Amino acid sequence: MAERYPVPGDIEASENVRELFALYGPTFRWAVTFTAMLGAFSTLLTGTIVNVAIPDVMGALGMTTESAQWLSTGFLAATTVTMLLAAWCVETIGMRRTYSLSMVIFLGGSVLGGIAATGEMLIIARFIQGAGAGLMTPISMLIVFQVFPVHRRGMAMGLFSIGVVLAPALGPVLGGLLIDNLNWRYVFFMAVPFAMTSIPLAMVFLPQREPNARTPHFDWTGVALLSVFILCLLIGLSNAPRDGWGDDRIAQLFLGAAVSGIAFLFWEARVADPIFNLRLFSNGRFLAAAIVTFIIGAGLFGSIYFLPLFLQTVQGLKPTDAGLLLLPAGLIMAVCFPLAGWLSDLMSPRRLILFGVILFGISSLLMARVDTQTPFLDLALWTLLGRIGLSFIFPCLNAAAMRPLPLELLAQGSGMVNFLRQLGGAFGVNLLAIYFSQRSIFHADSLTPSQTPGHETTLETLDTLAALHGQVAGAAGSEHARALAFLSDMIWQQASMLAYRDVFMVVAIVFALCLIPAWFMDSRAPAAIRPPLRPPAPAPAPAR
After folding, report:
1. Would you report the helix, strand and coil content of the chain in percent, each value rounded to 5?
2. Could you tell me the residue range of the domain that residue 154 belongs to?
3. In which region does residue 537 sit, left (phi positive, over 0), alpha (psi from -120 to 50) or beta (all else)?
4. Is residue 315 part of a domain?
5. Up-side HSE of residue 343: CA atoms within 13 Å toward CB?
6. Which of the four pLDDT bands, split at 50, 70 and 90, describes residue 259?
7. How many whole angstroms separate alpha carbon 417 and alpha carbon 290?
8. d(CA 513, CA 515)
9. What three-state secondary structure class fits 171?
């Protein structure tokens, strides 16, 4: 008979998790954490690599800026919807099968993306990848919370986040190397080995379906309404700058989003087994953490999307160099995450979150000063400062959101926290893309009128450009036309640079606003949240 190990008395876990503790002993906790980290790493790796590959993908498949935006938005949209389905899947088929299913879906999307022949096929592949990633992420957080005691969950999230942050750190570098030496298709195949390795680990270390778990009804109506809401809103936001905000089709999309969104909330308040459990928001501390999560998601995903684009389109860096600039920031996060998690077990997480929000806001303010001549070292240091801030936000924010919830709401709470972060990210990417487009046009319109025939600097620039073109091409009579075209490109480049500045300033403002709800988060020390789960054994009676 196999040896059975004692189950820790300070964990708050399901019966099957306790059974695995008894089977594998103390190493089980770390094996589960590694499995969760590997799944998160594989899904996040592709997400960050794609951001670096967007310029090459646009050129190879003839995608416009608006359609390429869906490579990021489509992933976030699909992830947002399926995150809310994770709790239903865990109750219905168990954590082990849900994790494995999510990885299989993600693998299918990765392979499809690698062989995509058109932009439309690539966008579909990103939707499939997002659907798999959305199922997996809440499960990873849920199992880590169950195998660590309440007073060590901050440290647990810090350790788990090492794997989570290594993907954004290594992704741009690996992506740049693959693009510069091979081609963009390999960025989709990069995550395949990690995802395939995680499946057998999940089959061994993740718990099966609880024997006494009920089978909830699937909320088909809720899923349909939520999908309509997100798609109508994101499509409307993506197409409005091109078609015009007063276009009838755009108005219909926004109307559809409003109607489906309101109907979704009414339905979820009445249905017996909702995918969006409004009861979670009756907890004031969870509500404050949820608002902070949404706002931070909007600012974070927006900045992650625009920074690689700025480095490549304005500064002219190669994908590899852009990735190398982001690497030190990611590595410092891997060091700071465990420290932040450990500190959140000793003090109020609210203080650490406020500190992190301020640091990232300062980083965004510094980035609002960028131009084509900003030194590489300055950009690296500003990015580093912001990532240190994020290191103090995420482990503490996840722990602060989940700590007030009882065991029966942990699965739904985990899905909700991740859902709100991704929803904020989808909104952030779209709204900032719209803002960037409008500000680019605004700055170009402001700069163009000053370039008149009577402007001395403009004439000198045209003469210089004409002379250069004449030396290079040697085509008489065409130098002036080429000089005018090059001057137009210079104006648009300057306008884009100013628009990137505006985007980073908006991100700084978003994080400043985040300080308000963060102040109302849980301010108690972890030990004060809940009494010990199991009372100590009584002392033996004294001998008579």
Report:
1. 80, 0, 20
2. 15-209+273-444+492-524
3. beta
4. yes
5. 19
6. very high
7. 6
8. 5
9. helix
Q: What is the rounded distance in angstroms from the CA atom of residue 361 to the CA atom of residue 505? A: 9
Count other Cβ atoms within 10 Å, centred on residue 353: 29
Q: 448: pLDDT confidence band, cut at 50, 70 and 90?
A: low
CATH label of the domain that carries residue 438: 1.20.1250.20
* pTM: predicted TM-score of the whole model, two decimal places: 0.68
In a domain, 437, yes or no: yes
Residue of 309, 221, 234 whose CA lies nearest to 267:
221
Distance CA(286)–CA(278), nearest Å, equals 11
245 assigned to some structural domain: no
Report phi then psi at 508, rounded to 5.
Answer: -60, -40
- Residue range 208-231, pLDDT digits in tens: 887 776 777 888 888 888 888 888
Q: What are the φ and ψ backbone dihedral angles of 437, each rounded to 5 degrees?
A: -60, -45
Higher pLDDT, 539 or 432: 432
Residues 10, 532 contacting (CB under 8 angstroms)? yes
**Tokens 């094996």 belong to which residue?**
31
Classify 26 as helix, strand or coil. coil
**330: its two tokens:** 């990611």
543 falls within a domain: no
Residue 536 corresponds to which tokens in the numbers above?
A: 């100590």
* Domains of the chain: total: 1
- 8 A C-beta contact, residue 152 and residue 303: no
**Residue owning tokens 């070292």:** 377
* Contacts of 280 by beta carbon, 8 Å cutoff, 6+ apart: 286, 290, 405, 409, 412, 413, 416
Residue 536 has a pLDDT of 42
Q: How far apart are CA 188 and CA 50, in angstroms?
A: 8
The Cα 436–Cα 256 span in angstroms is: 25
